[in-house]
Amino acid sequence: MMSDPLKDRAARFLKKSGSLSSLRTHEFQRKSIHGQTKDSVSMVSYMDEPSQREEVSRLTVQMENTYQLGPTKHFPVVTVNHILKDVLTNYLQEEDYEPELCKQMTKTIAEVIKARVKELMIPRYKLVVIIHIGQLNGQSLLIGNRCLWDPKSDTVSSYVFRNASLFALANVYAVYLE
């Protein structure tokens, strides 16, 4: 049998190399292979028993790197423009400007637009939806947004809606995820 310091050193080596899950859950045995004695490790560990956390992690799909640097399918700007027009018209056609109502409507409209664009199933694009709603009084307004992106694969879709009392600007930024 091996002495205790040798057992501890071997256990640390095996733990570093990924062969052991715990220093406390190992046992060394000597086996005879072809007339020679060899040290072996047999494992009994609580980590070997399945738990709920491990079962959940087994359900997740691990994706390997594809090394794909550009999109196979480009973002459909025209289709998203139609979605923006449809959603803004349906939600705001008959509405009058009220600050509290418009505050809630921006959140609702942004979620609806994001859900409708996600239904297009465009892979590997992150979506950012920004909605601005304001009172229409003949004033001038400049709205600016800045993004750092690749012009070859990233894009933006935008639509402006107006009725008698309010205006709405909807932007959907599609940023390709490498």
The whole-angstrom Rg is 30 Å
**Major pleated sheet:** 3 strands, antiparallel
Number of helices: 4
From the N-terminal CA to the C-terminal CA, the straight-line distance is 54 Å
Structural class of the secondary structure composition?
alpha+beta
Proportion of residues in extended strands: 25-35%
Low-confidence stretches: 19-33, 37-48
Beta-strand segment tally: 5
The mean pLDDT is 78
Please estimate the helix content.
Answer: 25-40%
The spatial strand order of the largest sheet comes to: 3-5-4
The H/E string reads: HEEHHHEEE
Structure description:
The chain is elongated. Helix 3 (77-92) runs antiparallel to helix 4. The longest helix is centred in the middle third of the chain and has 20 residues, at 99-118. It is α+β, with helices and mostly antiparallel strands and 178 residues long. Residues 19-33 and 37-48 have low confidence and may be disordered. 32% of the residues lie in helices and 26% in strands.
Question: Which tags fit this structure?
Answer:
single chain; 178 residues; alpha+beta; three-stranded antiparallel beta sheet; two-stranded antiparallel sheet; 4 helices; 32% helix; 26% strand
List the helices and strands and how they pair.
Layout: H1 4-16, E1 26-33, E2 36-43, H2 52-59, H3 77-92, H4 99-118, E3 125-135, E4 155-162, E5 166-176
Antiparallel strand pairs: 1-2, 3-5, 4-5
Helix pairs in contact: 3-4
